[in-house]
Amino acid sequence: MQWRSVFRGHVRRLRRHPTLVSRIHSDASALPVINIPRSSIYELGSQKPVLRDVSWIVHPSESWAVMSDGAASSHLKPALFGALTGTHRISPPPPASEGGLFPFLGDADAHRYVQMVRFAHRGRASGDGFYDFTARYGAVREEDKRTLRETFFPDIARPLHELAVPSLVKPERDVDELTAKDAEKREKARRKEEMFGLLTEWLQLGRLLDLPMIALSNGQTRRARIAQALLSDPKLLLLDEPLTGLDHKSRGVLVALLQELKKQKSSPHVIMGLRAQDPIPDWTTHVALIKDGGEVLTGRKEDVFPSRFTPATTQAPASSRDTSSTSGYRHRQHGDALVDMKGVTVQYGPRKVLSSVHWTIRANSRWHLIGENGAGKTTLLALVTGEHPQSYTQSSNLRLFDRERSRWATPLLHRQIGRVSPELYNAFPRRSELTVWDAIGTGFDGGFVPKGKRRVGVAHDGTSLAPGSHEEEWRVHRMHEVMRALGPRRWHAHPDQMTDEKFFAASFPALSPGEQSMVLLMRALVGAPPLVLLDEAWAGMDRAMVEAAHEYLRDGGGGLTEEQACVVVSHWEEEVPWGPEHGVQRFRLDGGQGEQIFPTPK
Ligand SMILES: Nc1ncnc2c1ncn2[C@@H]1O[C@H](COP(=O)(O)OP(=O)(O)OP(=O)(O)O)[C@@H](O)[C@H]1O
Fold first, then answer.
1. How many distinct structural domains can be found in the chain?
2. Are both 439 and 509 inside the same structural domain?
3. Range of the structural domain that residue 182 is part of
4. CA nearest 335: which of 565, 553, 598, 559?
């Protein structure tokens, strides 16, 4: 595998590093990392347990993953992590006589040494209103100028200022003590710098350090957060879904890095949260599997998943579908060009992110857009949605729905495009009164504010829809149609309790991340727009949700029609709804260049 050679050198360097090896805590404490002998877990202030009779003891030599089994149980994974981070109550509490919840910490402060980093969504939005996620494409505003280095690593790579000149009036013993403390501090800073160097090299952050944070791609930001978390020197690091949004190579590098740290018995002890459909790294020894209903199975992975651990399924992520093969390829009859790029370029100063890209997206085409983190996929799609200011300067090279880009008012363009992206997920308003119906209904206008008496938007010219008009009835019909295909009856653990009507009335911000993703997918599809752009649409979704979405997006699933084109961006082959048998095509961005790599059938 290609990434193996990337990190082989890093592994050698890590092993050669005496300072890093020396910072590694000895295995002297064979005390458990986590000790929950048998307790239930509650939301704070609630008397009803979320998780029942949890027995979870983690020993230092083990590597654990936390997974949820079904649709509703994705709600429950945060509860298990919450028990460790103090957002949930454990009752009865782990006995103090056994060292409490984290026996290996002894008297050390759990708030300081137990850290949680979630990756399912970036959560950049502040407050409950909409924030402008397109800011990163334009001139960077003063408040967004903070670089990655300033934001995440402010105290590293700064000169060490402390002077080793003790005061002459100090008694000798104090001087010795001061010097020893000083030396310790310097040694700590030096080790942190070394670790910083290794992590930035390993996670390929070096050339990003002085870019504004806002300019980083999703995957780049996630890699930076992992480095930041490791550098903050926790003793127990909880990484929830760290592989989501990382490209294939970065996933391999991260899994190898964590394995290497584990082998070195280096701090911190890492526990990963994985989605049910994620591959389990080879070196994971144990799994806490959360079942619908709140039961938690804990044990060796082979015991928890007896059928899953055949040799073939323990391998690193592999494509379930061989898209390089043309056998069984279906030739789709494509329609008119909806998007026609003839040499589009995007440049920030001297830095060319896209360099003369040619790509035509026709009606009835199904695309998988690929490229490493930072390759320019989001940027390319922002040209298509008109959100990238450089889409204007590229207007003569960029025809959208048969007009030059500059001849489209951006809000009108948005009515032609249904889309989902991590940026949109984070930016979507989350006022408590916003219902699921409201959120989906904004899809007809492509906006973010519910409009119209029946909350299914307004007419194309901005006027209200005539009550009972064909258009209004069609929109209401579509609301129910997408809900039938993609709503709770398809993925909820208790569909009898969560009916479509109940779900429509639910508060959007109160939903789990996976449910919110599902609602935003419905929003993208409800208006049956000619072009559908699904950028990492499945983040946070359970297997049942992903399956329902895939079925809908395939021919015959009742979702996409021959008039529509759809582009999926995902780093996971398994997440693409179509295989060659459905006539999927691939477009790859690499080094600013675009190429169609799936063979066009003769
Ligand atoms: N204002 C800017 N100045 C310099 N570089 C920028 C700026 N904005 C974006 N970039 C760079 O453009 C590149 C493309 O980013 P983009 O978000 O399109 O990548 P991506 O392919 O979607 O990545 P990912 O898979 O991680 O989501 C990145 O390397 C990013 O750092």
1. 2
2. yes
3. 2-123+148-314
4. 565
Looking at residue 171, which CATH number applies to its domain? 3.40.50.300
Distance 485 CA to ligand 1 centre (A): 34
CB of 211 sitting under 6 A from ligand 1: yes
Give the Cβ contact number of residue 569 at 10 Å.
25
Q: What is the DSSP letter of 212?
A: B
Quick one: 163 and 231 in the same domain?
Answer: yes
Determine the pLDDT at residue 131: 53
Q: Is the ipTM of this complex over 0.90?
A: yes
386 and 433 together in one domain:
yes
- The distance of Cα 208 from the centroid of its chain, to the nearest Å, equals 19
In this structure, the residue with its CA closest to atom 7 of ligand 1 is 215
552 CA from centroid of ligand 1 (Å): 31
pLDDT tens sequence across 312-331: 443 444 444 444 444 567 77
Which tens digits make up the pLDDT trace of 350-378?
A: 889 999 999 999 999 999 999 999 999 99
Best substitution site from 251, 379, 421, 570 to test ligand 1's pocket, by max atoms within 8 Å of Cβ?
A: 379
23 lies in some domain:
yes
Is any ligand 1 atom within 6 A of the Cβ of residue 374? yes
CB atoms within 10 A of CB 44: 9
Average pLDDT, the chain: 83
Q: Is the CB of 218 under 6 A from ligand 1?
A: yes
What pLDDT, on a 0 to 100 scale, did the predictor assign at position 325?
45
E-strand spans in 246-285?
Answer: 269-274
Q: Which two tokens stand for residue 600?
A: 């066009």
Residues 244 and 346 in one domain: no
